[in-house]
Design brief:
The complex is a heterodimer of chains A (about 375) and B (about 270). Chain A has 16 helices and 2 strands. In chain A, a hairpin with a 2-residue loop joins strand 1 and strand 2. In chain A, helix 4 packs parallel to helix 10, helix 4 runs antiparallel to helix 13 and helix 5 packs antiparallel against helix 9. In chain A, about 50% of the residues are buried. The radius of gyration of chain B is 19 Å and the shape is globular. In chain B, strands 6-9-10-3-11-12 form a 6-stranded mixed beta sheet, with helices on both faces. Chain B is α/β, with parallel strands linked by helices and about 270 residues long. The chains are: A mainly alpha (about 375), B alpha/beta (about 270). At the A-B interface, helix 11 and helix 12 of A face helix 2 and helix 3 of B.
Chain lengths: ~375, ~270
Amino acid sequence: MTALVLQPLQRHVAAARNGDRAPLARSAIAVLAVLLGCAMLVSLNSGALEIQALKVMATIFDPVSSLSGEELRDRIVFLQVRLPRVCLGALVGAALAVSGAVMQGLFRNPLADPGIIGVSSGAGLGAAGFIILGQSWLAPVAALLGVFSLPVSAFLGALLVTSLLYRIGTSNGLSSVATMLLAGIAISALAMSMVGLLIFYADDQQLRDLTFWNLGSLAGASWEKVATCAAIVSVALAVALSLSRGLNALFLGEAAAGHLGIRVQRLKTLAIVAVAAATGASVAVSGGIGFVGIVVPHLLRLTIGPDHRYLLPASALLGAVMLILADTVSRIVVAPAELPIGILTALAGAPFFLWVLLRRRGLTGL
Amino acid sequence: MTAMETNLSVSGLAVRLSGKTIVSDVTFEARPGKVCTIVGPNGSGKSTLLKAITGETGYDGDVFLNARPLGRYVPRELAEVRAVLPQHTQLSFPLTVQEVVRLGLQNAPLDLAAVQARIGEALDRVDMAGFEGRAYQSLSGGEQQRVQLARVLCQVWQPKVGDEPRWLILDEPISSLDIRHQVLIMDVARDFADRGGGVLCVLHDLNLTAMYSDQVLVMKTGRLLADGMVEEVYRDDLISEAFDFPLRIGALPGGETPFLLPQAAEGRMP
C-alpha cells in the first residue's frame, strides 16, 4: 500500500516543489478516470427503479429466454434508459468543461465560460430556430443533415456568437473581462429576444419541444442522441487536445506565442470552431446547462496547474464526473419527479463564479 | 553558405500603422558575432522597428534573416532561428518559474532529464538558480524579466548551428534591473555573440550601450540617424541631436569606452 500510494505521492510533491506539476497532473488524470467509472456505476444504480447495474451487466449476454420477467425489465431499463443517459451525461460534461478550458486559454481569461458569455445562448438560438422552422423554412436543411440538423444549427449559432465575442472582447490579443462579460450579456439578451420572436411562429407541439429542451435536462437521452453527440464531441475534443501546446504558448500573449513558432491565427480559428462545435452539440442534446465550463477547469488549475496538455483531458474527465453526479442527484432529490439539471449546476456554479470574480478583483481591479 | 550571407539585413523598411508612418527608410545590416544596439528617444520607433523585424507587424521593404526573406520562414522555422524577448510579458494564468522557462523548450527534442537540466542552467545564467518552484507572479519585475530571458535563451540555446547563426532579439532587456543584473544580463548577451550568435537589442542606457555594443543604431522620429561603431556614433553633436538635448561625451583617462553623465548637460553644471 505504501509502495503504491505513498512513494509516488512523495515523488510528486518533490517534483512540484521544483515547479514541475506534470507527474502530479498525470496521476490526477488516472484518479479522475477511476472516479468516472465509479460515478457511472452509481448513476446506473440510481433512479426510480432499483437496479443492480453490476448484476445486469453480468447477465448482459444471456439470451432473453433465460431471463425472468423482472430481469428482462431491468435489462431494458438499463440498456434503453440508464446507460444512454449516463453516456450522454459524460459526453455533455466533457464537452462543456473542455469548451470552458479552451475559451479561457484563448481569451487568456479565467472567467470566460460558454454559458456566461453567451455562446450557449447562441447555440440555443440556433437550436430553437431549427426546432421551430425545421418543418417550414429550414426543411431542406433537415432533409440534408438528418439527425445532425439540430446540433449543426446549434453549432452555427455558437460559432456566430464566439467569433463576434472574440472580435468585440479582445484588442491586440488582450481581452478585457469587463468588455467580454458585458458583450456576453448583450449578445445573450439579443439571442433570447430572437428566440422570443421565433415563439410567435411556433405551433403547440414545437412550443412543448422548445420548453422541454430549454429547461436543460438529460432526461430525453436516447442512443441516437448519444451517437450524434459523440460524433461531434469526439472530433471537437481531439481538435482541442491538438491545440494544447499552442494554448500553452498563449500564456505569454499572442505576439510571444508567435515568436515561439505558433501559427496564432490558425490556433484561434480552430479553437473557436472546436468550442462552438462542442458547445453546440451539448446544448442541442441537453439544453442550457451552465457553469460546468468555469468550475471544472478552475478547480483543476488550482491543483495541477494550467498546462493544457493535462488540463484539457483532466477537464473532460472531471466535467463528465460532475455532470453524471449532478444528473444522479437531480433524479434522487425530488423522486419520482426530476429536477432540471441546469438548476443544480447553476445552484453550485453561480456562487463559485462570484467567488472567482471577487478573488480576481483584488488582483486586477477588473 | 558564406559568412557574408548569414546576417540580419534590413533595407528600405517602413512601417505604417493606421495611416501614420512610424518607421521609414531604415536600412542596416547586423552581423553574427556582434551585439547591435538600437538607441533613441521615446517614440522614435525603436520598438516598432523591432516588431517589424520579428514579424509581429506588417512592413514595406525587405528583411533578410540568414539570407532568407523573413516572409519565407514558416513560424516554426523562424522560432528555431531567432528568439524574441518582449518588453513586458503578462501571464494569463499562474505558472511556476519552471513552467515559464519550459515554454522556450516546446520544440526542443530533449528528454525530461535534459529539459530539467537545461532549465536549471538557463536560470543559473540569469542569476535565478533555485527559483524553479516559485510562482512567477510572486516575483519582482526584474526577476520576472530575468526568467523571461532564461526562457528566450532556452529557445536558441546554441548560438550557432553548423554555419547558421541564431539570433537574440531583445526589447529593453534590462529596463527594470538593478545595476548588477544589468551588467550580468548584458554579459549573457555578449557571451551569446562571442559564441557566434547575433544579438539585436533596444537599450535606453547609453553607458551600457557603449560598454557592450559593436554596432550602434541611433533612431530619431522613425528614421535612422546614425549607424556605426561606438566611437563613431558617440559624438557630442550627434547624440545631442538625437535626443534634442545638449549632452557631452566623456572618456576616462586611458579608458576606451566613452561615457555620458546627465549632469554633463550644458547649462546644468553648477
